[in-house]
Amino acid sequence: MKFREDINALRAIAVIAVVIFHFNHSWLPGGFAGVDVFFVISGFLMTMIIIKGLDRETFSIIDFYKARVRRIIPALAFLCFVLMVLGYFLLSPIDYLNMGKHTTASLTFTSNFVYWKESNYFDASSIEKWLLHTWSLSVEWQFYLIYPVVLVVLKKFLNLKQLKLLLVAATILTLLLSIYVTFNTSRAAYFLLPTRAWQMLAGGLVFLYPIALGQKGKSFGLMSGLAMIVFSFFLFSAETPWPGYASLLPILGACLVLISNNGESVLVDNKICHLLGKWSYSIYLWHWPIIVAGFYFSLGDNWWVIGLPLSILLGALSFVFIESKTLADYGLNKGRYLLKPLPAASIIAVFGLVVFQTNGLLERLAEPERTLVASAIAAKDDWSYPDANKFMGPIKIRLISGKTDKNILILGASHTEQLYPYVKSLNSDYNVYFLTNGGCLATPSMKHPKWNCDNLQNYEFLLDSVKFEKIVTSFFSFDVYLSDIQTERQEQISVRTKEYDTFLARLKAASDDVYLILGEPKGEEFNPQTVIRNGLNDFITEEQARKNYTIHQKALGLFTELSDIKIIDPIEYLCNEGICRTSNTSQGFFYRDNNHMRPWYAVESLTYLEDIFLE
Known about the structure:
single chain, transferase, SGNH, 7-stranded mixed sheet, Acyltransferase 3
């Protein structure tokens, strides 16, 4: 195929959008859609290679895989190698073990599964993951593995027309799947191949159904397609359910550009697009670790001034010296088997696995640092709230069955879920119902950006269905997901205050004993990973703990329904003589992050709640 400047320009636009978005979401709130554009390009090119090869009866799956290895692995393996070497000297063990895990996942092209299980793409914790961006490479590689095999097999039984119609049907079905999954579990939709496949298949359809356009049509198609892509960068944001139907806009825009096949326009045929398009893969590889470095080493809000051009520079160097070269270019092709892409990547992947399995090569540390780090590692995934075991109408409940027909309801977000191990340990006579929804508040105006809060906000159904002797709720999530715009923020707080007052009145009407638990001590000094990384103190002052709840205290003063409600202040019980400890030498860290208790600490420290469950 003749070199297409329009495809190269698409790459340039896509990578710059992604890079700008990652450096500052507010500059280009939908810039992440650049990845979707990359998927369309991949689908178009892979379909062209495979179908042309099948038509000529020259297609080889092995040769196809070899070409993909040469294209993708050298630059990726070199990046992983550099990060693992630097990480040994610069990262804390807990960060290094994560880097080891993610290096192995990236080089085995399974990182999308790992990140799907770990967190949401837009979570704050994402900024700590040096290879998070490789999820898209894993999705593409999985497509590369499956797609040619499927086409080769189908071509044995179908003619080209039938094959094309089948791919149209597959595109539509996977699009519908993507829309459905996006609105039910957006994290899976974002990271997994089945919900991304339609984007690559859409690119393939452009090749399979070529449209001959005149010069005016080409110009219009190019302009319209580019406009749709660029518009999507500003229209959408991290709060948009993605990919779903919203991603149709950049996908159709990319398809229009490919259909137009117009490489002569100055919009795409210029030196900037030409160079950025050539360097796009390497720029994409290097930009994210540079962003993480800015966060990790606290290089300031203006790190982008250095980081953005540095991303382009390192991308260009990677293209010139790694991506566009072979071992033969350096005279290393003879007797240097271990330097070839697959062996080299395998060695780095195995080393990453060793680092992960040895907790960041923990044995290199001396005591007592080794013990403290081991505690931080253990704390990270220390959570014991089980899945629901009772379903009532629209809600899911975790029920601890007691010995009587008396019931207690605990409702709230994750800060009520952390009560579970303590309540379970009491072996109470009460049947204890946990009605929870992580990151949510019972007030209807509170909206979570990535999932609905219906399970908690449908609490009325449970109150109408079961008689509760006691009700326990938490006030912790009152200030979550407020607007950054001050006027909107104040309005949200005002609305939530009124709604929460109504919520308390409803609880009082449903039960004679209502308990409102205020917030526990919180802060980065409680976060094991941050403490290890930055050497923070093992305590905060009680004054500091209370300052974290300024918004809560103001709202509390405005409630009119607090009469007859028993208010429990955890800070009174968890802090001693003005000090709130975050760890001890015998058991390690008390929390798993900056605000959630570990199960053993919940069992040990929540004794101030005993009278609720054992009276």
